[in-house]
Amino acid sequence: MKQIASGKKTLTLLILILLTALTEGKPGRADSNKPQRLSIPCIMPKMDCDPHQVPKFFDDDDKIIGGKVTEPGTTPWLVSLKDSHYDDPVHFCGGTVLSHAWVLTSASCVAGYSYPYTYLQVVAGEYDLDEVEGWEQIKKVTRKEVHPEYDFVTQNNDVALLRVFPWFLYNERVAPLPLPPPMHQSGHPHFAFTHDNEMGLIAGWGRTAEVSEISHLVLMAYAPILSTEDCIGAYGEAITDSMMCAGNLTHGGLDPCQGDWGGGLKTREGYLLGVSSWGTGCGRPGLPAVYTNVQRVRSWICSEVTCATCEFSDEAKRICND
């Protein structure tokens, strides 16, 4: 009997050893020495990927495509759009504060949003996506207006307005970025209507390369604003009247990427000139980022905020510089 019992113990030990050998190294086993992976929404058509399989890695990478980490409060107009359908709301796009109540973003960020827009969060004063610093203002979206001539296929007129509640409170971390003057308003003393080769400021939390993590800190870069001829030269007939380009044609490396879309392009005069819309890859030479030209959609923006804020006429005037 002792020999049988001993044999059973030996067999049991061998089975345990075999099971351990088979399970070690299998996919899905946690490894505390490796960065943990989360998924962020990939709801925009330009992303061309599974909506919930874009990886975010928590590490100390502080690079963006041609950009650098900003100091807190450097870009107070920048907001994070988050999907609150998850237990922990997840960043997926940027946007720009226009006023106490309105944010401008890319239509492709929100037009195809698969949940009710009440799940959208707009977070102003955000700096570090991984930390709560106390400056964040988390707002609900009470109204979503997509440009009526937005084209899902061509990305023409790729802009949308989000009305938030409660309203933003301005401080050193939250402030609006004004629209440019109307294109027909000649002789404006503080605005250049030809921005070719001027450096525009872009900022966001997007990927630092085409296949990489998004940044948990706000990053910014200065990108050359290109002429219409150079923009068409890069993309041909894909460029419509509502579009403009910015980036380094020769060397690349100065672009927004996934997670940055919807953010603004700021001019040296301090105006919102573009809304980041699309591109081929991120930061590739000869293929600059494409933006919606805010001057081309300014009249639509003003008509929407004027109509929706009839009881707040001063709010509409502040947005449209009237």
From TrEMBL:
Top-level taxonomy: Eukaryota, Metazoa, Ecdysozoa, Arthropoda, Crustacea
Any single Pfam family the record assigns to this protein: Trypsin
An annotated GO BP: proteolysis
InterPro entries noted in UniProt: Peptidase_S1_PA, Peptidase_S1_PA_chymotrypsin, Peptidase_S1A, Serine_Proteases_S1, Trypsin_dom
Gene Ontology CC terms, in alphabetical order: extracellular space
Subcellular location: Secreted
Main location: secreted
UniProt entry keywords in alphabetical sequence: Disulfide bond, Hydrolase, Protease, Secreted, Serine protease, Signal
Record organism: Penaeus vannamei (Whiteleg shrimp)
Limits of the Peptidase S1 domain: 64-306
PANTHER family to which the protein is assigned, alphabetical: SRCR DOMAIN-CONTAINING PROTEIN (PTHR24264:SF65), TRYPSIN-RELATED (PTHR24264)
SUPFAM superfamilies per record: Trypsin-like serine proteases
MF GO annotations: serine-type endopeptidase activity
Name listed for the protein in its UniProt record: Trypsin
Signal sequence, start to end: 1-25
